């Protein structure tokens, strides 16, 4: 039997950041809403701030749980789907070309069922397994160039981006028990590991008014994270902790919905 316990401390932290970001955007909108806006035939003004929230899907090696699925020193990440958000700023050179700045992050839960199967085959040894898992997390800052085409109501776009990220793997505690016997060990949470991140998005902006537009966005991100240091901590005091260094490919497809404020 396998029991899975997912810890939600990271989700609570993200929700606090999202609440703060939402308040900031709302106050900015109210401030600009008090200022008369000159009517224009342009689809967009020079500046736009946006806030998006949605779904993060683990793809490629990051979402794989097949031990034979490898790329050089990179192995499967056992990541599941999760949660994505970002705050963006856009400066328009023309109606169809703009520079973009994006700050955001995502959390993807570990696929604990498949992860524990890698450690031991519970059907063979008869142990009951319990897994407590914190999610993977990534934060990033990126810049890009956005090209768009459309009409006065709807515009489609592409937006290649690149920048820097910090990747973190959460605690994973595995406990095996049989009768009155139990033994456990923990893959400890890693420190944030910096890396380069790149990708791009495709999406559409729907104009609601001179000040507001609704956004649908599909953002693909990829990074090769190296030198991740992780300790395997055994509960048994007679066992030595094991320090490991490994590499992980991070790749996600993030579908988000957002609101943008033009000024």
Short structural description:
The protein is mainly beta and 263 residues long.
Topology:
Blueprint (H helix, E strand, L loop, with lengths): L1 E5 L2 H25 L13 E12 L20 E16 L2 E14 L1 H8 L2 H4 L2 E6 L2 E15 L3 E15 L3 E7 L2 E7 L5 E15 L4 E23 L7 E21 L1
Parallel strand pairs: 1-5
Antiparallel strand pairs: 2-3, 2-12, 3-4, 4-6, 5-8, 6-7, 7-10, 8-9, 9-11, 10-11, 11-12
Provide an overview of this structure:
The chain is mostly beta strands and 263 residues long. The chain has a single domain (2-35, 46-262), classed as Porin. Helices cover 14% and strands 59% of the residues. It contains 3 helices and 12 strands. It has helices spanning 9-33, 112-119, 122-125, and strands at 2-6, 47-58, 79-94, 97-110, 128-133, 136-150, 154-168, 172-178, 181-187, 193-207, 212-234, 242-262. An 8-stranded antiparallel barrel has the order 2-3-4-6-7-10-11-12. It is elongated, with a radius of gyration of 22 Å. It starts with a strand and ends with a strand. Residues 22-41 have low confidence and may be disordered.
């Amino acid at each position: 039997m396998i029991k899975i316990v997912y810890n939600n401390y990271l989700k609570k932290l993200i929700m606090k950041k999202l609440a703060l970001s939402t308040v900031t955007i709302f106050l900015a909108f109210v401030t600009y809403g008090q200022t008369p806006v000159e009517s224009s035939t342009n689809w967009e003004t020079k500046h736009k701030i946006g806030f998006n929230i949605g779904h993060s899907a683990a793809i490629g090696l990051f979402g794989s749980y097949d031990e034979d699925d490898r790329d050089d020193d990179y192995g499967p990440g056992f990541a599941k789907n999760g949660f994505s958000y970002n705050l963006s700023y856009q400066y328009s050179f023309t109606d169809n070309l703009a520079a973009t700045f994006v700050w955001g992050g995502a959390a993807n839960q570990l696929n604990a069922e498949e992860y524990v199967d890698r450690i031991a085959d519970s059907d063979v040894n008869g142990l009951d397994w319990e897994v407590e898992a914190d999610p993977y997390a990534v934060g990033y800052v990126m810049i890009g160039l956005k090209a768009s085409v459309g009409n006065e109501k709807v515009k489609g776009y592409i937006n290649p981006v690149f920048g820097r990220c910090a990747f973190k793997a959460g605690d994973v505690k595995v406990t095996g028990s049989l009768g009155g016997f139990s033994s456990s060990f923990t893959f400890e949470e890693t420190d944030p590991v910096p890396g380069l991140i790149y990708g791009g998005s495709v999406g559409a902006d729907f104009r609601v008014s001179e000040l507001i537009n609704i956004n649908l966005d599909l953002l693909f991100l990829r990074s090769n994270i190296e030198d991740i240091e992780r300790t395997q901590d055994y509960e048994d005091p007679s066992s030595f902790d094991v320090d490991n260094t490994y590499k992980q490919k991070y790749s996600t497809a993030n579908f988000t919905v957002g609101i943008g404020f033009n000024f």
